[in-house]
Amino acid sequence: MFSPPPSWTQQLPKPDVLRIRQATDRQQVLTKPPGSLGQLEQLAIQLSGLQVMDQPTVDPIQITVFAGDHGVCEEGVSAFPQEVTAQMIANFAGGGAAISVLAKQLGASLEVVNLGTVGDVPVLAGVRNESIAPATANLAITMAMTEDQAYAALTSGDAVAERAANAGCRLFIGGDMGIGNTTSAAAMACALLNEAPQQLVGPGTGLDTAGVSHKSTVVGRALERHGDNMDPLAVLASLGGFEIAGLTGAILGCAARGIPVLVDGFIVSVAALLGMRQQPGLRDWLLFAHRSAEPGHARVLEAMNANPLLDLGMRLGEGSGAAVAVPLLRAACALHNNMASFSDAGVSNKNATS
């Protein structure tokens, strides 16, 4: 039997209170009205406390896309066939996907972890084939995963975090690829938040109104089968996907190793919410990149008390929304680290006497 990674059960580290206070004090004496840089100030303060550094940085960056197929696609919940998952893995490796382009632009490391696809995935540079099964089971009629399968996916995610830590990573971005995964994520979110499917289910890859209605019915069947068990592992095994479990393992694993996580859209946010339900201290380690156009994302963000940086109508996944937000984090660090103080610049501040 698989055992969960240590980050699943061991208490996570806390931000350094002294560094947070020092960073807050520094923001008060830089040549600007206090608070005038808005969220950029808070980002720098948070990163300083998490990284235990006077001069925070987000580089180097690790981006990992987890891929997995879903048995619930048997119910006709996606506008795309499942073969697309394996095909997109090849596209990631070939540099043609959005996240591939963005990772190159950012100078970030990119890897793909294949946890199980219906289509064959050949040996490709930058792709780790760690298949658990060709797909999860159909969550509308049975548990999506066994407990051992869920733990295996969590462990693969934790191994990603360990590699990131060994490489000196300062920021982690997780992405997702899996046809049918918005159905799985919506079902998980409904179970964790005690919400009706009609409130959280959206178009995913582009379903029309009738398709969304059918998808909502499928999620309702899954929730009726699952019952009211809100235990994180029970929700994950019953309603989740291999890639969602991998994301949860990586997010918790990065926090356990002192690496901040920049959270992407709906799928990754559900993985983060699951991690928070297991380890409430995870919230300290999360930065939120953007508000997805997928309807359920707003409710998931609300549950995590998250105020994302961007709202661009994106809903691609892959970690793309988080990658787009990276320049804002870099700007926050550059401003915090390099702006002059009032005394350094010889500028009178609001408390100066005439």
TrEMBL record:
CDD domains (UniProt xref): DMB-PRT_CobT
InterPro entries xrefs: Nict_dMeBzImd_PRibTrfase, Nict_dMeBzImd_PRibTrfase_bact, Nict_dMeBzImd_PRibTrfase_N, Nict_dMeBzImd_PRibTrfase_sf
GO molecular function, one term: nicotinate-nucleotide-dimethylbenzimidazole phosphoribosyltransferase activity
Pathway as given in its UniProt record: Nucleoside biosynthesis; alpha-ribazole biosynthesis; alpha-ribazole from 5,6-dimethylbenzimidazole: step 1/2
Keywords, comma-separated and alphabetical: Cobalamin biosynthesis, Glycosyltransferase, Transferase
Catalyzed reactions per annotation: 5,6-dimethylbenzimidazole + nicotinate beta-D-ribonucleotide = alpha-ribazole 5'-phosphate + nicotinate + H(+)
Residue ranges the record marks as coiled coil: none
Protein purpose: Catalyzes the synthesis of alpha-ribazole-5'-phosphate from nicotinate mononucleotide (NAMN) and 5,6-dimethylbenzimidazole (DMB).
Protein name (record): Nicotinate-nucleotide--dimethylbenzimidazole phosphoribosyltransferase
Organism whose genome encodes this protein: Marinobacter azerbaijanicus
